[in-house]
Amino acid sequence: MDHFETVLIENGFLNKYPHYLEGSLLYVSNASGLEQVYLFDFETGESRQLTACAHGVTSLAVNAAKGSFLFTTQLGEESTQYSASGAPFYRYHDMKILQDGMGFLDKGLANYLCEYDLASGEVEVLTPQSTGYGLRRVVSVSADGESYVLEQLREPRSDYNFDTGLVIYDRRTKAVTWLTEAFPTGIFGEAVFSPDQSKLAFIGNPLPYETSNQFQLYVFDFEKGVLRQLAADKDVQYGDNSVSDVYQNVATPFIQWAPSGDVFYVVTSEYGQVLLNEVTLDGDIRVLSPERAVVKEFVVKADGRLLAVMSQPTQPVGLYHFVDGDWLPLPTQVAAVYDGVALADYTEMTLTAADGGVIHGLLCLPLDLDVNHKYPLILNIHGGPYTMHAWNFYHEAQYLAANGYAVLLVNPRGSYGYGQKHTKGVYERYGKEDYTDLMAAVDDVVARFSWVDSERLYVTGGSYGGYMTNWIVTQTQRFKAAVSQRSMSNFVSMFGTSDIGYYFYKDEMGLDISQPERLWEVSPLAYVDQVETPLLLLHAKDDLRCPLEQAQQFYIGLKHFGREAELMVFPNSSHELSRSGRPSYRVVRLEAMLGWFETY
Fold this sequence. Notes:
CATH superfamily of the domain at 346-599: Alpha/Beta hydrolase fold, catalytic domain
CATH architecture of the domain at 346-599: 3-Layer(aba) Sandwich
Structural class: alpha+beta
Largest sheet: 8 strands, mixed
Distance between the termini: 50 Å
Helix content: 10-25%
Shape: globular
Number of helices: 12
Strand content: 35-45%
Radius of gyration: 25 Å
């Protein structure tokens, strides 16, 4: 394995979706410019490219029983991209025309599941597929290799319906059967066969698709033809919704079966933690992972052993082995990199909002905290809004803490991790309880910790957090300076310019472009003349989720009224700049944030 890692590093490969076969390993790499499937031979130490898809490969799964692998790619016959004298242009007749990170879409293309026979090299196109919001497992293969389960859109051509269901593909007959036919709406995915192929575990929700709906847990019994919901009374979010800026290519599925087939394992997001749970077929759930940690990846070995990659504030990554109820650390080369590196720890805060809602958060303490010294405080607001600040390593917070700041990470209304009511609490309520939750958390920290300097308060956030930063500086002048990242400022214009705008506001606020006055009421730009806080706006030029025009409008509005403001634009970058963008830009971004706060 050491030799393989050396090969990857020396050739600049991007290693994703690795699958071990006898004497070899299948993986996805962008070594040729586009992501393709490669085969590494352990005996010869050589890699060989297997696929040559015109639009690259987006996922990989092995069918060991049949000596083949499954992959997804975009295929199509009729293109919506044209050319005139060699210059490309697009022509559309539907609404979904953009996607962040991809640009204008060629609507003649669709995702397809394909099978590659390793012996003959032949490829067969099987069936269209689609991956649901935030899910990882694209296809599950039965032990005998004869059945595949995948997620498909119910109405592939619809501009508004993103509901999905699970289908089973029979390799012998080529027949496709819907498994979740009992639910006319909803989103279902992450399905995985039990070892004996008699059952299928998956997560989903039968309600019409909305990002604020928590997933639930289901098992389909093939022998009885019965679909059951497990642990219906457990009010949690299944999956990993933790915020971080260091984890890339995390692809291990959320659900995995024990070899015995009588239990399976699933992760949940709860109170800033991502927990690994053992689930019985009766729906009993037992938490296995330690408190105040985030399980980023886990794997169940063939002999039933559990391995997990976990993160904590002062431990970016740790590999653990579950033995007799305890998690024992395993040595890794990564751990050695952090030897001697000082990292800031977190402390927890919980309080009750005036309306009875829960306000929970984490305070990243300044490095080498001296309680007799006064420290500035930065309120850091996550995006989503349906994500969750967590007990994991967060480089942005660590960087600011290392430079003498306390960083407050709050999960206000709209965050995952605190039950469906809390998550749904932001629906049609932007700038209301989410705002008061954040302000109450700041008040609590200032009152509780004498070393926090109430005269040096700052605020930053990205995406939805950028919206809240813009909103906050229009509502209060208590912050000395603010940094708004990949933000939203004008919901009227964003309705038609964001890749998700036209349905996002319908889902989030129950509004559309026929109600511009109501969209404007909750747009920070409507109140830009009230801003007194010096504001730095950081934005990626090619951000199509929160388009650059959102930052431009707010910036020009601020300058029009003579306010202190700066705009930084990063070329060739998408909405993911802070998480997976160009490293040099990520460094500049952090230095600019710190410099802005230091100036004020």
